[in-house]
Amino acid sequence: MKKTIFTLLILVFSFEGIGQISYRTRYQRAVFLETFAVSPIFSFNMDHAVNRRMKSFTDIRYGIGFVPGSKKLDTFGWSDNGLSLPMSITQNILVNNLKRRIKQRVSLKCKSTPSKISIEWFAEVGAAYTPVFYGISEPRHNFSGIIGLRQQVVFDIPPKPKVIFLKLQYTPKYYKGSFSWNPITGSTNIFGMSLGFSI
Question: Which domains does the chain have, with CATH numbers?
């Protein structure tokens, strides 16, 4: 009986530990650089992870970007440059087996030191709105869908883990009653890449 109770207690604390480890890999804030996608050319962004759970989290981002205008040079450089303000919200869902990997780390703690570096993969889906303000032309208002894949490398270093992440996204756009989703016949910047780190 005592052995059974002892075994159950070990299992309870192990699963509690799993929940804490997985939760700690969800950063709260990050910064990242993005090319194309919803930027739509280049942007610097702030990232907030909310509703952080073991297998998913919600991501809210906002940033500021640069959009070159026409190729005609003026005294200030490119003519009619633009300033973009990308904003998006996405849901990120874990696609690799985090629970099995953490169980393995817990089971190995008596045999060797657990790895302090782990990799997580997330499927990402959401929507974005990006107004672009030009010096001469009228502002543009772009709406985009987001389908992507995120890879996070977690460095489990006290007092809190550090995360570096890479995102690849497909972002079909809607502008003035038409969709741009085909990279061959439509816009070439409906694909994008981001690189960032937690702060």
Answer: 2-198 (2.40.160.20)
